[in-house]
């Protein structure tokens, strides 16, 4: 969740929606991502889970035609001014942990999401702790299928790795 700036997460969101989203997702999100009209954040890391992304405990429970989100995420870059978030949440406790995850696009502007900046030693607060208390995700904002969140998250990470490699190549190419 940390280490990806505003432009980086926008490109991760665009790549994920382009590769894993349906036609509706592409129509609703891609242009606004690419023009910068919407800001995005990545909601993967959780307190106490370290690097065990599959151990996510933030819950997404189906309630009628909506998903209800409860839990917290940490080290989330730009959450304090994001319009949308890429959310990995647990939808099934009764299957192996990699299979019980689903991937959502969540509206970060709702009152049921609290964002607390984490002050760094230099006084800046680019990372955040995010709390979800009965936050709502509309069913059309599920990316891929229920239980396929791990595969979608790995797709997002593959774009993140390629982006970091491209930035390193550009930086080295510009060195004297």
- The shape, in one word, is globular
Instruction: Tell me the Rg in angstroms.
Output: 16 Å
Strand order of the largest sheet: 1-4-5-8
> Element order, helices and strands?
HHEEEEEEEEH
Fraction of helical residues: 25-40%
Largest sheet: 4 strands, mixed
Q: How big a fraction of the residues is strand?
A: 25-35%
Number of strands: 8
Tally of helical segments: 3
Low-confidence stretches: 1-6, 164-176
Arithmetic mean of pLDDT: 86
Task: Describe the protein's topology.
Layout: H1 6-20, H2 23-35, E1 40-43, E2 59-63, E3 66-73, E4 84-90, E5 101-107, E6 113-118, E7 127-137, E8 142-143, H3 149-173
Parallel strand pairs: 1-4
Antiparallel strand pairs: 2-3, 3-7, 4-5, 5-8, 6-7
Helix pairs in contact: 1-2, 1-3
């Amino acid at each position: 969740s940390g280490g990806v700036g505003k432009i980086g997460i926008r490109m991760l969101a665009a790549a994920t929606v382009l590769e894993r989203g349906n036609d509706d997702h592409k129509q609703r999100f891609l242009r606004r991502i690419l023009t910068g009209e919407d800001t995005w954040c990545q909601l993967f890391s959780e307190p106490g889970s370290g690097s065990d992304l599959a151990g996510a405990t933030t819950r997404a429970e189906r309630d009628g035609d909506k998903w209800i989100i409860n839990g917290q995420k940490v080290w989330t870059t730009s959450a304090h001014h994001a319009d949308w978030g890429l959310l990995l949440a647990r939808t099934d406790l009764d299957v192996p942990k990699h299979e019980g995850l689903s991937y959502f696009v969540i509206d970060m502007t709702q009152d049921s999401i609290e964002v607390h900046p984490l002050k760094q030693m230099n006084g800046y607060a680019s990372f955040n702790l995010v709390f979800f208390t009965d936050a709502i995700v509309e069913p059309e904002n599920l990316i891929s299928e229920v239980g396929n969140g791990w595969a979608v998250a790995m797709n997002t990470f593959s774009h993140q790795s390629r982006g970091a490699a491209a930035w390193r190549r550009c930086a080295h190419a510009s060195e004297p």
